[in-house]
Amino acid sequence: MFEANCYNIMIASPSDVTEKRKICVQEMASWNSRNSEFQKICFISTGHDINAAPDSGKHPQEILNKKILKSADILICIFGNRVGSPTEKHTSGTIEEYREHTKTGKRTLVYFSGEPAPRKIDPDEIKKMNDFKESIKNECLYYEYSDENDFKKKLSEHLDQVAKELPQKTPEKEADALSRTSSQHAAFFENQNEYSDDAYSDIDFRTHDSEIKEMLEDLDSGDFAKQNSAIKSISLILQNKSVDSRNISSNEIFVLGRRIYRSAREEGRGNGSYEAQDFLRNFRNRISSFSEENSLHLLNGIFYEIYFDEKGVFRIKRSKGEVIEVPALKEDFVRTFFEIQSIERYAPSVSFIREKLEKYKNDLLVLPDNPPETFVLTIELSRTEDSSENFNIVSIKYKENELIRNSSGVRDNYWRIFFGSSISLDSLLSEIQKRWGIPKQQVVFKTICSNKDIDMKSIETRRMGFRDYESACIINPLDKSAL
Predict the structure, then answer these.
(1) What ranges in 381-459 are assigned the alpha helix state H?
(2) The pLDDT of residue 243
(3) pLDDT digits (tens, 9 = 90+) for 345-364
(4) What pLDDT, on a 0 to 100 scale, did the predictor assign at position 405?
(5) 53: Cβ–Cβ under 8 A, 6 or more apart, which residues?
(6) Domain map (residue ranges) of the chain
(7) Least confident of 70-74, 155-159, 249-253, 458-462
């Protein structure tokens, strides 16, 4: 008889990977028999086919989320050729479980099939699968298995890796950690604005730590080799260390965060350090071994760099209501950092940047917040007179303001999205993220059409003309001079 820390691992999948689910249960049992007594860790398989009991009163997925997913320490998502059945909130139950679990910041392992798809597979399923893979590629490092033997082998290796990275948890430690986290959050909220003036205007930043100084200089050098090396050094210094253990100041970590983000996309060069880009795309994984305090200071610096330049100046400048400088809100990695808004661990950083942006809120369509804000556009469509398959855009409104304008004679600037004679809803969404700095997941299209029989999903990628203009543009709702 021995004591061990037990971790619930929920297995999430559509119904076409039943054999892979069985492999998961078998591999966890095998791992336990080999390792639990010595490593004091035990993996417990959970899932709808293992733990669920009949229930009523709510949507089945909501019941599973509450009774099984909520108590899962780790989630394993397995996909074959289908994403699964839709729920009230998401394309499938497995995708909803992924989304809900990752909001908590807990570990998630995702596996996709690399096996040839059956000939009879529904093309719509392939599209849904590809769309989901595309949506998580910047937030998740997933594995693509070639067959069942490959899946079994890799899962065994990944369980070994997960076990090495797990903290030893006991009820006493969990209670103490919760108490410490609450206290740290309170202290951080109280002190997080205490960065120096030269950290906010980091063009003037100076440090007496020669190693930190060299890292900052390397990150600003424009030399990708030096930048890549600096990113690796930063990870080593901050890993599993508190600020006080090395006397690294909060100002230095804050500025390191700024420089990492800056080096990922060199101004005027169109590219940047690969290590910096990888660090940002996989931010949550890369900082998982940092202390919470280090993580928050680093994230504060990254958030600040998104909106403010090296002189501490807000990136959008106006004159009499009209934009006089294109801000280029460094949109490349904005999505990654907006996606962490709902995670409690990062709440202090969301609060920090929202406070800094408060006086600029009239220049931004959405601000970081928890829960995330949404940007809603109402789009009215109508069928063209000569075809039952083609559509025109009649109106695009934000609140009560019409945004469509005739593009002839309209001066191009940051606020306007030009499309000429036609657009698709997909391309409109992409341009809103790129030009206006709003993450795609926070843009909501409320589509209105007099033809009730239209399947809106079927026309998302279809190009549509403008009913009243041969060539049109869409203005930003904050451009008061154009409304």
Answers:
(1) 425-436
(2) 43
(3) 888 898 899 889 888 887 77
(4) 82
(5) none
(6) 5-165, 192-363, 375-475
(7) 458-462
Distances, alpha carbon 383 to alpha carbons 194, 393, 446, in Å = 57, 9, 17
- Cα separation, 257 vs 260, whole angstroms: 5
Alpha-carbon gap, residue 331 to 437, rounded angstroms: 6
Q: Given a cut of 80, is residue 180 above it in pLDDT?
A: no
Closest by CA to 419, choosing from 449, 396, 443, 388, is 396
DSSP 3-state assignment of 250? helix
Specify whether the CB–CB gap between 381 and 448 falls below 8 A.
yes
Tokens for 356, please give them.
């800094």
Q: Which residues contact 90 (CB under 8 A, 6 or more apart)?
A: 96, 99
CA 314 to chain centre: 23
Choose among 216, 193, 214, 191: nearest CA to 203. 216
Q: What is the predicted pLDDT for the residue at 399?
A: 83
What residue type is 53 in one-letter code? A
Which structure tokens are listed for 335? 């999505």
**Is the pLDDT at 337 greater than 80, yes or no?**
no
Task: Select from 2.130.10.10, 3.90.180.10, 3.40.30.10, 3.40.50.300 the CATH code of 5-165.
Answer: 3.40.50.300
Beta bridge partners of 7: 43
